[in-house]
Request: fold
Amino acid sequence: MERLLSLILLLFLTGNNTRQVAIKGGTFHTTDPQNGQKLTVKIRDLDVDKYLVTVAEFEQFTQETGYITMAERFGNSIIFDFKDGQWKLCDGADFRYPFGPHQPKAVPDHPVTQVSWYDAIAYCQWRGRRLPTDAEWEYIARNSGKSDYPYPWGSSDYKDGRYLANSWQGSFPYYNTAADGFLATSPAGYFGEDLAGLTDMGGNVWQWCRDSVQPAGCNAEDDLSVRKVCRGGSFLCDKSVCHGYKIGNRTNSTPESGMVHIGFRTVKDI
Reply:
């Protein structure tokens, strides 16, 4: 029954002809994700997922292909424990049980998490699409480069008594009031469309990009020499601490790592 409900939800989502948004390309000024130097980039016309890839969509991929995620192969993945405010390696955590097997199962219409960069690449190949580059992601978030607002939807993350993105309210990592209605992920698209007609370009989950960066700062001692850029912030972003859902901000992670606050969306050249 659970599998049937997931497929029904997936058919509803993919049957909607507004699942993708056409973005007109152009010349765009951004910064290098490695060193922060200014760049001028030519962006192609793109077909962009309006929504983050959901648990139901990723489940369909695994059912049809037999794909096994990195977290499943490792037998564990990284979670955030809200009780003690700590990151932990949790046995049995994967995209179906993002906080571990003793916590609730992932909700089908929420963005998929606990997927590594390699998992996201495999899904993209199955769909005949790809991950956006760092520059493409920012160009899209800035409404084809036309907006100077700090967020994809405008100048503020709070308006008319409601939050406009899924983020952390309180004091990270000590307490979260969840005033936006969600302690962890929210349904894909719940907070509405931004200026480009997309959803969740800020908050909910970080989004894998194609770009590689060398480790720096506290990550300089990592065994792996290459990390992958993430954009967009997540439900764990407190704007007084990291403000990851502000357009210009980035993070990165090792490509084999699944985490409870990283997902993705896909694009395709037009």
